[in-house]
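This entry is listed below:
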Amino acid sequence: MFQLLGFVVRRYTWNKVQGFRQYRLKNLTVCLVHSSITGCWALSMLLLYPDIMFYHTMHWYQSFAIHLPMISIGYFCYDLTDMLRHEISRWTVELGLHHVASIFVFTSAVLAQKFLPYAHWALLMEINSIFLHLRSIMQLSGEYQTKPKKFMFTKIVNIITFVLCRFAVQVWLIQWCWHHRHLMHSFFVAIGFVVGCFFFVINTILFYRVLASDGLLGEWAKKQTLQIGRDAIQENNDLIGTDSTVSTAEPMSVVKN
């Protein structure tokens, strides 16, 4: 599915853009499609089946529900290989660890046929990823200059959904795991706590980068974030004719989830 989507995006979108920026825009477009599908699906599950999401988080199973984590497994596998083809950097390692952890968690739920509502809870974070990816696309495409009000709205909604759909959801997942630890095998308890804390740290770092890039932590933090940003360094590499597949830069605005 995502290989086909990636082919269509590479062939028909962002062809007037050059260099590393073109790769990033094409990659972010695929990310946006994934976030839109999975985020809306997970939110629909919460709104339509709140009793299942809150009170049957462990043992509830329906064949239709298993497709959501399977879609995300396919996306993370696609995105990991796409990054390895285009960019070898410290950020490939960072995002690679995130993707591998996500694949491991969702695969554990799919194979065990348990914790599917838990996986849906986790994918509520993709609601924020919609605005996170939109924000990055507007920055890279220059649309933030031509549509400043739309960009400001996207930044505000991004921060609000970050707190609600990432931090609040992550806290709920960790506390649920704590209160139900005596009902679970130690393997799943370890996943809940270790991987949960791992994602919480990643989200905290990402939130700092977003706030700094948006100028909410002062001009110094904003300049540092932009000057050593992943996209800024790669654009500079393109301009001076160096290998644009190697970077030691910090992501300017996005860590994909």
Notes: The chain has twelve helices and two strands. Strands lie at 88-89, 246-247. Confidence is low (pLDDT under 50) at residues 242-255.
